[in-house]
Amino acid sequence: MFFENDQAMSAVGRELLANSFEFIPIPILISECSNSGDINSGRWHRFSNQAFRQQIGYSLEDMPDIDSWFQLAYPDAGYRAQVMQAWVQEVERCQARGQPLAELTTLVCCADGQQRWFIITAQIQAAALPFLQIITFRDVHELKCTVDENIRLSRTDFLTRLLNRREASKRLQQAWEGWQCEGEIFSVLLCDIDGFKHINDQYGHACGDHMLVFFADQLTALFEGQADSVRWGGEEFLLILPATDLAGAARAAERLRQQIADSKPVWQQQALGLTVSIGYTSAAGHGELEGVLHAVDVAMYRAKFQGRNCVCQG
User: Fold this and answer.
1) Does the predicted TM-score (pTM) go above 0.90?
2) Residue extents of the structural domains in the chain
3) How far is Cα 182 from Cα 242, in angstroms, rounded to an integer?
4) 113 within 8 A of 101, measured Cβ to Cβ
5) CA 215 to chain centre
6) Which reaction is catalysed here (predicted)?
7) In angstroms, what CA-CA distances link 49 with 5, 10, 28, 278?
8) Interacting residues of 264 by C-beta distance below 8 A, sequence separation 6+
9) DSSP, res 31
10) Were 58 and a residue from 62, 147, 154, 258 both cysteine, which residue would form a disulfide, CB within 3.0 to 4.6 Å?
11) Residues with catalytic annotation?
């Protein structure tokens, strides 16, 4: 281990610093900094401890400076740019508050190809050794994955993996507030699988579950990235369509109706017919969110009474 700024440290001090960090059981990286203060540039790596080499896997030869570290740790250019921008913002926030440490949780690509979540803590202010930055890495991969999975389970329906009613209620409220405050229009579709009780009675509940998953997959295929797809309850499904007026909602409803009518889901080697009744409305013309939901519910039942396999405006 060596530093260009030798005036600040004796040989004994350098050796003591290295020995102190070598066997600490969390990965540690020490960088020497330029005078720019930019955490994303002007840094040369001078020391990594045993835990860093074992858990993350890169040597100082692999990543002599900060640029090479970012290239190795974040091979996806888009994610790398996000991480670099997040570091800039975090350092600026900490400096503004006089905090000596900046911290970020990122997904690091290790030398063996594994991608693992680490909490990375960087020392940005050190009066005794101002030219050094000490960076620690805490592996929180299992914890992060468990927390993320629990969050996902709390927001999604266990069978269809669509959003559940609780999460949809939050998103509907957010959409309504956007409409009220910013004029951001949105529309809602409420769908009910036709004859679902008959499917359960004739073919069994396993077939019914299969049809629910099939319908959910059709929603995802048609509207992924364009709408929030929700299992509203039983055989009812809800779609929240942002930036969509009433005419757009009508087109979306008809497209979905036609897609389901043309599909032929298979159960135990038998092709079964499937249709859906859909009500649709937009936020415009309603004084409250409850009015939107009531209108789309009434429209969906009107579609049922008109013979099913059709769409009605609310």
Assistant:
1) no
2) 6-146, 156-313
3) 13
4) no
5) 23
6) 2 GTP = 3',3'-c-di-GMP + 2 diphosphate
7) 20, 20, 6, 62
8) 271, 272, 273, 274
9) E
10) 62
11) 235
* 137 strand-pairing partners: 120
Q: What is residue 153's predicted lDDT score, i.e. its pLDDT?
A: 86
Pick the closest to residue 45 from 127, 134, 150 (CA basis): 134
- Provide the pLDDT confidence category of residue 312 given band limits of 50, 70 and 90: very high
Query: What are φ and ψ of residue 246, in 5° steps?
Result: -65, -40
Q: Regarding beta strands 311-313 and 276-282, do their DSSP bridges make them parallel or antiparallel, or are they unpaired?
A: parallel
Nearest to 257 by CA among 281, 279, 282: 279
Determine the pLDDT at residue 95.
87
pLDDT for residue 70 is more than 80: yes
**Strand pairing of 101-109 and 115-123?**
antiparallel
Q: How far apart are the first and last CA of the chain?
A: 72
238 bridge partner residues: 190, 230
Residue 9 DSSP one-character state: -
Phi and psi dihedrals of 197, rounded to 5? -60, -40
CATH superfamily placement of domain 6-146: PAS domain (3.30.450.20)
275 vs 9: CA distance, rounded Å:
77
Q: Is 156-313 assigned to CATH 3.30.70.270? A: yes
